[in-house]
Amino acid sequence: MEDLLRIDDLRLTFETHDGPVSVLRGVDLTVGTGERVALVGESGSGKSVTARVIMGLLPQRRIRTSGNLQLDGSDVLKESPARAKGRRGRDITMIFQDPMAALNPVFTIRQQFAAVLTRLDRRLSTAEAESCMRTALRDVSIADPERVLDSYSFQLSGGLNQRVMIAMALASRPKLLIADEPGTALDVTVQQQTLNIMANLSQAYGTAILFISHNLGVVRKFADRVCVMYAGRIVESAPTDALFANPRHPYTRALLASVPRLSSDRLPEAIEGSVPDLTALTEGCAFRPRCQFSRPECEAPVPMWRHAGHGVACIHEVNPA
Amino acid sequence: MSEPLLQIREAAKTFHVGSSEVKALKGVNLSVGKGETVAIVGESGSGKTTLANLILGIEKPSAGEIVLAGRPLSGRRSKADRRQIGLVQQNPYSTLNPRKSIGQAIGLPLSVHNVCRRSERRRRIGELLEKVGLHPELQDRRPLALSGGQRQRVAIARALATDPELLVLDEPTSSLDVSVQAHILRLLKDLQEELGLTYLFITHDLSVVRVLASRVIVMYRGLVVEEGAVADVFSGPRHRYTQQLLASIPTVSAEDDRLKPDWSWEADVDSTEVAEEGCPFRPRCPFALPACAAGTPVLAGPKHHLHACLNPGGAPTRKSSLELLAGQ
């Protein structure tokens, strides 16, 4: 598969009043054309920041970046803000967590959707826009597009709003859609339906999806490949089935063990300790203080060990004890 | 079951919105034994939060009564009544005042209810913090200095300040990371053992129900549609809505997948169609019979597992369901 998005050793530091904070510390990530890749991790792991760098949504003056970020052949980190703006909403689009907050309550869905379409093509006639909106809404299984288009976001259910967002985000047939915790605010039945619609359309349109989530169960159903993030670095990356059947990094294993199971009424195992302070991290494995397998060698920088599409950044993979 | 601490009889609540009526609860019966954990599950609009508000006295029921430890609670609660029920809410980022210290947050119920003398308050707050696994000195800090998990611990300590018998837990772990959630679940379980607390646990996350609750009540559009021991309901859901709900749980292993009921029907879960008569789930149900439209199905079945469905899913033999769960 050809790489649509390719990130090598991406580092990002926020300048704050209390000094620099390294949020991304060498992220390596690729997304192939039409591939669905999930980025999972806890709050503060850097997954949303990664999404925002790709979108070019971070304030340039407050951050320092290094590394390489290639999207469809062009270097995102070095390009002008004008080019980034031209790409946003066209080649890359984004869906945010709370559809109620993302839609404007004082405009109808029709007004907002039409604005999205005219931004893509200024010569679009009203009739063309109308038919385009109706098709797009039908594609996300909305049976009566007219009613939805005439509504305000607060008149629609969370699930319908989310589907409107998906329709808008896919209207330009983007190469990459970034979905930041989509459906987290929805009921499970609605969430599942939303994800199915998104998966089907990504296949139909050939749109790659970078799916950001903290819910391992949702990721398992949706993604082709999963990247697990911890403290600004990807610690494990594997095809979805391989990752869930055979998680290798101690953090991935601990994270999976903390998920409550249907098959057991035992309490899930919590991960001791807490997420590290990003201002005081050294080069070694960031999970070391919480890891039951940690050894003195873990203080040295950890390379990514790769085998048959399964990458693990753990010293134990390189030289097993 | 042990002697019921909380009993709800035919509780109904109708909200008047302009000229129209919204029936949020349509006659709910519920009984929670002392020391028991009962989970109420359902999607938005099922009435689970309204039910919690009635129990807490935030809303007055339109009909029915709420009995706590044998005494009917009136719409207007006395201070003594209010002391008996504690509340832990979903989002610890919005339930703690950022301008007040942790000590002030926990101290407020202590002073309102005269739990202890002013001179003893600091020590008592420290004890409560220790009880939830936090350092007593944390009481001088503000919520901003705390992580999400720590804040939720503070919220639990505050709910425990008046020594309540019943804790209403409204999605207590939904806004937390999964690794933090595991800590909070353990804490809740330990506190229950230590203090003999009774939990009413409101959630839409069924996988958490499995580990925390002993009995589960499934609500849909203001009605209880299924009720039973967690092991029974999870291994053999009868009501079609419960089946769909269980089938939608995102799971992380093949073992868990096997326990989910088959559900391959594409139903429009956003259907806003409201069934005035008959089963409320009917507009979404692929199994609906003409009879489902006639009258609202009532809860029926063996006492340990009731359901209100005219065309229910297959009943597992009790033995097979227990084997299934014991085998894991």
Summarize the model shown.
The complex is a heterodimer of chains A (321) and B (328). Chain A is α/β, with parallel strands linked by helices and 321 residues long.
Short descriptors:
heterodimer, A: 321 residues, alpha/beta, Rossmann fold, 2 domains, eight-stranded mixed beta sheet, four-stranded antiparallel beta sheet, 12 strands, 24% strand, globular, B: 328 residues, seven-stranded mixed beta sheet, 11 helices, 32% helix, cell membrane (chain A)
Structure report:
Chain A is α/β, with parallel strands linked by helices and 321 residues long. Chain A folds into 2 domains: 236 residues, 3-Layer(aba) Sandwich (Rossmann fold); 73 residues, no CATH class. Helix content of chain A is 34%, strand content 24%. In chain A, the strands form 2 sheets. An 8-stranded mixed beta sheet of chain A has the order 6-7-8-3-9-10-12-11, with helices on both faces. In chain A, strands 2-1-4-5 form a 4-stranded antiparallel beta sheet, with helices on one face. Chain A is globular. Chain A starts with a strand and ends with a helix. The mean pLDDT of chain A is 90. In chain B, a hairpin with a 2-residue loop joins strand 9 and strand 10. With 328 residues, chain B is of the alpha/beta class. In chain B, helix 4 crosses helix 5. Chain B has one domain: Rossmann fold, CATH 3.40.50.300. The longest helix of chain B has 18 residues. Classes of the chains: A alpha/beta (321), B alpha/beta (328). Chains A and B meet through helix 7, helix 8, helix 9 and helix 11 of A and helix 6, helix 7, helix 8, helix 9 and helix 10 of B. Chain B: One of its GO terms (cellular component) is plasma membrane. Chain B: InterPro entries: AAA+_ATPase, ABC_transp_ATP-bind, ABC_transporter-like_ATP-bd, ABC_transporter-like_CS, Oligopep_ABC_C, P-loop_NTPase.
